[in-house]
Design brief:
eight-stranded mixed beta sheet; 224 residues; alpha/beta; tRNA_MNMC2; MnmC-like_methylTransf; three-stranded antiparallel beta sheet; globular
Length: 224
Amino acid sequence: MKREIKTTNDGSKTLFINDLNENYHSHHGALQEAEHVFIKNGLNLINDYEINILELGFGTGLNVLVTINEYLKTDKNHIINYFSLEKYPINESEIKDLAYFDLFDNPEFKNIYQKIHQSDWGKSVEIINGFNLKKIECDFFNLKDIELPKINLVYYDCFGARVQPDLWEKPLFEMVSDKMNINGLLTTYSSKGSVRRILQELNFKVEKKQGPPGKREMINAVKL
């Protein structure tokens, strides 16, 4: 798939897929979307000592970076194990041109950004003390065959239903649910009624939340 880099309204960059007419992130702001959906309405709601995060999908790596940024703001007396699935990894040129480390004041973020992208697929790597990343190159529908610890936070960040409707249907949500702990949280930018109903059928408590800039609503869902 041919991709090009575009700058979103908050100054952060994203990738645009020409064939699908689809951005990896909101054109209103890639960084502010990630922080709103996955940090404010995700990570900051979890109080466990050991946090196992499952992300669908890794994409540009921005969600990993904002998660590390938030982790560094805490007293770091907990552990994060971050598992991220991706079928189409981006290339070295795109990684270089996105340059997400420039979005953060911490001078260490260039090294952290490089370590995130240079870490081997399929291997758990300690990016910083207490934060472990395992990138898994696979189709999302292979999730059922992947051995994971019980997940207590899901970043559901698939491409939109307009271009990949199968990623927003019951079979994949069932696989995700099977990997989650009771009281685990799934957070996503989507607010589709069909997604809410599927999650409710799978015994999630679903709550509509205020969406990131440019989007009225999003979903949080807690596994009961």
